[in-house]
Amino acid sequence: MTLKMDTSPANHRKRNMTNAAETRTMTAGEAVVDGLVRNGIDTLFCLPGIQNDLFFDALHARTDEIRPIHTRHEQAVAYMALGAAQATGKPSAFCVVPGPGFLNASTALATAYSTSSKVLALLGQIPLATIDRGYGLLHEIRDQMGILRTMTKWAERIEGPTEAARLTQEAFRQFGAGRPRPIGLECPMDVWGRAAPVTLPNGPAEETVVDVDIDKVETAAKMLGAAKNPMIVVGGGAQEASAEVREVGEMLEAPVCSFRLGRGVLDSRHHLSITMPTGHRLWKDVDVVLGVGTRMQPHQQLWGTDSDLKMIRIDLSAEEMDRINKPDIGIVGDAATVLTALANALPKHNAKRASRKDELDEARAKTMEMLAPLAPQLAYIDAIRNALPEDGVFIDELTQVSYISRLAMPVYNPRSFIASGYQGTLGWGYATGLGAKVARPDTPVLSINGDGGFMFNVQELATAVRHNINLVAVVFNDGAYGNVQRIQKLSYGNRMIASDLTNPDFCKLAESFGVAALKATSPEQLQDRIEEAFKMDAPVLIEAPVGEMPDPWSSVLNLPRVRG
Fold it and tell me: Residue 320: which pLDDT band, with cuts at 50, 70 and 90?
């Protein structure tokens, strides 16, 4: 049995036809801008260039509706779009020139793919008739569209004004059809300015509503209801289902385990909320696991599975269900919708449950004992958490502090802990933080960085000042690629190579851009400085000189196999 509405292509065609409103003569550039506005894009992160001149000319007439924010490097353009998408869960957009511009942005686009973020990439292109001819034109690369398609869920080329309107609308429909991923559109430089009568849709693109298999929900309810030690594992796909996860978790007294993209789905103060080390401690005794919006890659491939563990998964992508192991029950659909149906079905099957608070408190206490050798990182995490308001947004980076933040930092709200997912992109943090702050200007946003990663996009201090983006950034300065250097010391007989760094005076550097600068030489001082920085309501950089920190990998992050 299934519920919900018909989502057949015919039905979509019918709805799109009823949306048709008016026909106007306009250029391809104007049609794309109109589509962006129609679908709620109010900011375009961008770096102009000759292949996109006619598009930006079209944008100029509508800057009262779309604010262009230009950066100093294309990588930052795409990272800012990613930050905006992750901080809100809504589509964002960026525009860059083809070839080197696109390739500069590709790292961020790959990160958007790994985090299932709704990022629209608008790429310029060389003249239409010359594409893939190998003439050696400015910014020409071979098979740009093919490269783009490896980093997106859907990508197409605009070849005229009518197509510009249709494909832009389709791009936004794709965001709402199945698992979110980046979307790509490219337009040749000689097409942007072509004009023709264009039929415009009457509203934004409609989302595809996935039918919920109620029979599978009922079977899942029976399995979970009979479970003695259920666990819920949440990922980024559960960020919009916080209340529903809590309801099902409380019905089952099931601990809710999160890592990186799933942080904040359940408030860390809730007695059922656990992080990965605690989940690992409990894993060997779990009899039914419910995965919501997550691949559960470490749980399945590293912690292990066996015949005694039953697996239920909820995911928007049918393709993802069987990628590692085939679940006992796989339910395709929106997490909140499926969980609501599950909560309705559970009462008649659910066993009487005693509170697991004491048990889970004990497990969390043992985790903190295990984390004790990482006292330097924990002290900084405590300082950050104390200084960051409850609704504040934290941008994870590849630093010695952030590795442990994924395990030990309390997170209170959905979309308040932003991470790069499995891509693990060094240098993403500052530019991503800028995008998050643009999207949520009234929310305190904190970006933490290492000295190595921060220098990837240090030029965007200028962007923060130019556009008055009041991001607070911390730079932990240990004068090295710290993780690389530690591995060389511990695993390669202290044979260090290419891991030491020569740094500027970060405070003087920030001030040269017009950014306020502070220094913190202890965790206690860092807390004070962050609190001070938020009161400034301005772009602020805080340098935190640190020494070498304890190894988090051997005892905490590389958790051993416990099943199968």
Answer: confident
**What letter would DSSP give residue 500?**
B
Among residues 475, 450, 444, the alpha carbon closest in space to that of 87 is found at 444
Rounded Cα distance between 317 and 325, Å, is 15
Q: Is the dihedral of CA 99, 104, 107, 113 positive or negative?
A: negative
The Cβ of residue 322 has, within 10 Å, a number of other Cβ atoms equal to 11
Three-state SS at 545:
strand
- Return the pLDDT at 21: 67
Amino acid found at 278? T
CA 52, CA 34: separation in Å to the nearest integer?
16
Are the beta carbons of 23 and 200 closer than 8 angstroms? yes
For residues 182 and 159, give the distance between their C-alpha atoms in angstroms, rounded to a whole number. 21
343, with CB counted inside 10 A (0-12, 13-18, 19+), is middle
Q: Which of 158, 144, 162, 167 is nearest to 187 (CA)?
A: 158
- Better pLDDT: 537 or 544: 544
Q: Give the CA count within 13 Å in the CB-facing half-sphere of 512.
A: 9
d(CA 434, CA 443): 12
Q: Measured between alpha carbons, how far is 48 from 541 in angstroms, rounded to an integer?
A: 28
Round to whole Å and give the CA distance between 90 and 118: 6
Strands 329-332 and 393-395: unpaired
For the full predicted model, state whether its pTM sits above 0.90.
yes
| pLDDT tens digits, 226-274 | 999 999 999 999 999 999 999 999 999 999 999 999 999 999 999 999 9
* The two structure tokens encoding residue 107: 């790292």
Report d(CA 246, CA 256) in Å as an integer.
Answer: 8
